[in-house]
User: Fold this.
Amino acid sequence: MADGAEMNDAVNGGTFSAYRSRVLDERDRLRAALDNARRSQDESLGAMLRENADTEFGKAHGFARCRSVDEYRAAVPIADYAALAPWIESAAAGRQNVLSADPAVVFFKSSGSTGESKQIPITRQFMRTSFFPFYYAAWANFVEHFPEAVQRPDATLNLKHDPAPAIGATRSGQPHLGASQVDFGQAFGEPLAAEPGSRAPWGTLPEFVDPADHLQRGYVRLRAAIEHDVRCVIGINPAMVAALPYQLVQWWPRLVKDLHDGTVDGHPGGTPDPGRARLLERAAERAGGLLPTHVWPRMELLFCWTTGLASLYLPRLREAFGPRVTALPAPVAASEGFVAVALDRHLTAGSPAITGGLLEFVDADEDLQPDSATQLFHELETGREYHAVISHVGGLYRYALGDVVRVVDRVGDVPRVEYAGRRTLSDAVGERLRESHVVTALRTALAATGLEVRNATCRVVGAPGTGNTTPRYAFALEPFLPWADQETAALERALDTALSAAAPGYRSARTTARLAAPEIHRVAPDAFARDWQHRVAAGTRPAQVKDRVFRHDDAAWQRLLAH
Assistant:
C-alpha cells in the first residue's frame, strides 16, 4: 500500500518528487562548495567580471583589468542604491548593456529607507546563478524534515505570496513588482520554483475581492484556509505571522458564520459545514478567541526571520500555533540578493551564499563609506557584527544592502551569520545606537527582570534644539502579561545598564548627561497588532509592514500609546 507521500505525489503528478530532488541537490551543491569556499568566491568574482566587462559600468570601472579581489575593490567604490540609481534608471528606461550584458527581464520592487520604491534589475543569468540555487536550498529543511508541509498545495498558508492584480512598469514598460509577486515559471522557465503554498486553493481570489483592499484579500484567504489541514505558515516578515492570531481573534465570528453558511465574505462560494463551524465556535468561546492551534491542530512549522525584534516575541507567538511547532529562519536576503541561507536546522543562522557573487563585510561600528576597507567571509570574527556588501552578475557591484549581520559561529573555515538589523543609526547626541544594540539590550534587560513582551519599539524624545529637557529614549513595550509599576521601574534601570554595555556611544552620552535615563510606556494588549492592521488597511502591502526598532512616525507612535 502506498504511503501518504507517495499518494500525494501521485495526485500532484510527481511534482513533489521532482521538487524534492531539485531542492536537496541545490542544498548539497552549496554544502560541497563550502569545502573550498575561497575558490568558490574567486570563481564567482571572475565569472561576473568576464561576463560584464563590456558593459558601460564594466568599461567605466576597468573590469577587464581586474585580476583579483584587491584590484576589484580598488576599481569599484562601495555604493548604495542612490549611488547606483543613475545606472539603474538608465537600464529601467530601456538602455541595454548598462550594468549587465544580460538584459533585465523584470525589476523587483523594494521599499527604500525613504519609502520610495526601488527598481532592482533582475536578469536571467542572475536568477540562474545567484538566486535560484539559494532560493531552492532555502526549502531543504521543508522537504527533508517537514515533508507534510509541501506535499499538498493546501498544506502551507503562504502569507507573503501575493500575486499582483495590477503589475507596475518601468519607463520602458518592463514589469516592476515585488519578488513575492513574480511567477518564476512564466518569467524564468522555472515551474518548480513556485513557493510552498503558492498553488493553494486560496492562491486565486474571487472576482468580488477588491485588489486594493489588502485586509479583504487577507480575510478571504484565511476563510479558505480554515477548511484545510494547514501544516505550515510562511511569513518571511515575522510581523505578518504575528498578525495572524490577532486576525483570527478579531474575525472568528465572521469566519465561523461564513463556514456555517458556505459563503465567502458573505458571497456564495463554499460548502456549508455547520459541524466544523460549531467546533471552532466552541473553541473560541472557551479560549476567548480563536487561535491558530484551534484551527490547524497539526501545525508543524513557521518560516520567517527569527532574529531582530522577532527574537523577543517569537517563543510565545509560536505557542499560539501549537505545542509542536518549529520556527525556522528565512534566508538573510533582500530583493537585491542573498547573503546567507540555512543549510541545516540552526534556529537563526545560515551559511554564506558564496557561489552567487562576491560577499564583503565592513565592521558595523564604522560608518560605511565608498572607500571603506572590507573583509572577506573567512576573515570575519565570531560574535562581531558587519555591514553586508554584495556583488553579482545581475549588475549590482559592491552594493551596500543596508543590513547588518552577526557572526554566530564557524563550521570549519566558514562563518555562519544571522540577520542583526538594519544599519540605521539613532544618533541624537552621539550615542550611535544600532538596531542590534537596542534588541540586545532589550533581551538582556527582559531576562534580568523575568519579563516578556509581545513587541517593542523606541524613539528619542526631547531632542536637542527643541527647547525641551535632556533627550532620552522612550520605549513602547507591549507586556505579555501585566507588569507592576515596580517591575517597570526595574526594567527601566536594567535597560539603561544593558544599553550602556551594548553601545559605547550610549554609555558616553549617559555618563556625560547628554542623555537622560530611558522611560518605558506599557502599551495596551494587541497595540502593535492593531497598528499593523491600521497600516495594511491604509493601503500598504502586508509584506512591507515590518517591525520597527526605531519609530520615527509620530502618528504611529501616538497610536501605540493611545490605549
Summary: Residues 279 and 285 are 10 Å apart (CA to CA).
